[in-house]
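I'd like us to work through together how a protein chain folds, taking it slowly. To get us started, please write out a protein record for me. Label the sequence line and the structure token line clearly, so we can match residues to local backbone shapes. Once you have written the record down, we can walk along the chain together.
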Amino acid sequence: MINNKISIIILFFLIVFTGLSCSKSSKENSVKTHKNTIEKKSVSKKVNTKVTETINSKNAVKYLTEYEKKNKETLLVLKTRLGDIKIKLYQDTPLHRANFIFLSKEGYFDTTCFYRVVPGFIIQGGNSENLTTMRYRNKYSNYFIPAEFVAKYKHKYGALAAARDWENNPTKRTTPFEFYIVQDKKGAHHLDGEHTVFGEVISGFSVIDKIANLKAGGDEWPLDDVFMKVKIIK
């Protein structure tokens, strides 16, 4: 009899613990950066080494400020196996615009994929678990970009925004490599003022929806990778 009571008590606490450990839905979560590992999805590509004096954690703002003056492009296309997404970058978020153009021209994004898909929320890209991606990130010393919040730029459907770390980041500075696109047609306005919105999708919304609705694992990573190739238009 005593053993039965003990078993019931243990079972009760297991059920309570399991319920507490379940997090809120991904739609309610904030967007965080992905931490790289090297155990899977390894793809070998050659790293572009044409830049001799490049951006790093110490000179990031100065470097991007100068880069922005000489690289004025605002239109680009993310080409994927599911179709193309055309994007317009905002001129009044100059550091983020310059950073995206810089990484595109250096070939970084061409080694990455959409690694997180949450239907009714976002698709997130700009990272992968292949060695070449990590070599790029090591080369650029994992620099940061100050937040560039512009009141008129909201997390509407198709908004392009920068991911960031949430711990020990009171100024909401951006990690430069990862971005997300809002897939919720109602927007994701709980993220306004939390992440820098620096562009928007102008065509290819159906592609966003296709990517968002891919079958994914428990980590929200699509079972079939969606790699990207960036083509700068003007």
In short: The longest strand covers residues 83-89.
